[in-house]
Amino acid sequence: MGNSKSGAVSKEILEDLKMNTKFTETELVQWYDNFKKQCPTGRITKPEFQAIYTKFFPDSDANTYAQHVFRSFDTNDDGTLDFKEYIIALHMTSTGKTTRKLEWAFSLFDVDKNGYITKNEVKEICAAIFKMIPQDEIDSLPDDENTPEKRADKLWNVFDKGESDRVTEGEFVQQVLDDENALRLIQYQKSPF
């Protein structure tokens, strides 16, 4: 591919990733070597991604959510994740700024990729999130968010929109930044216990 330290990842991709992530060249080369070991073709398919992702949620059904996460990371819509998409996704979800993470979250909720979020899309993602929550944690949720529909309604109310209105990326990011409750509603964090 190119002539970087590892002789594997192209210099162009390496430079691009160094500029657009917080990873060093050494870290990127290490990530690439590991990526190539796990994915000799240089690409992760949706089923491979789902298999990896669901290992993080062994006590729940993370398949649907993993499909949405994969869709949001597959920026060129080719049905696979290449190394660059993988690293950008890793950066955005782990070390990126809050605003960047919320931009990614918007892309997760924007199921049809039309640049807007509808209440139906919010319901779809909330339903996928709910499949990952163990029953004992669902039982301890507040009454106004203990079903996917209630959680979606509560989140949609944050945006102060009507049933058939749409939310732009800017509105989404700003409203979630302004409302800690909304930030909690758009994700599932495993209980530490």
UniProtKB/TrEMBL annotation:
GO-annotated molecular function: calcium ion binding
The protein's role, per its UniProt record: May be involved in the calcium-dependent regulation of rhodopsin phosphorylation. Binds three calcium ions.
Keywords: Calcium, Lipoprotein, Metal-binding, Myristate, Repeat
Positions of the EF-hand domain: 61-96, 97-132
Superkingdom: Eukaryota
Protein name in the entry: Recoverin 3
Keyword Metal-binding annotated: yes
Family named by the database record: Belongs to the recoverin family.
Keyword Nucleus included in the entry's annotation: no
InterPro entries: EF-hand-dom_pair, EF_Hand_1_Ca_BS, EF_hand_dom, Recoverin
Alphabetized CDD domains for the sequence: EFh
Naturally occurring in which organism (per UniProt): Neogobius melanostomus
One Pfam family linked to the record: EF-hand_8
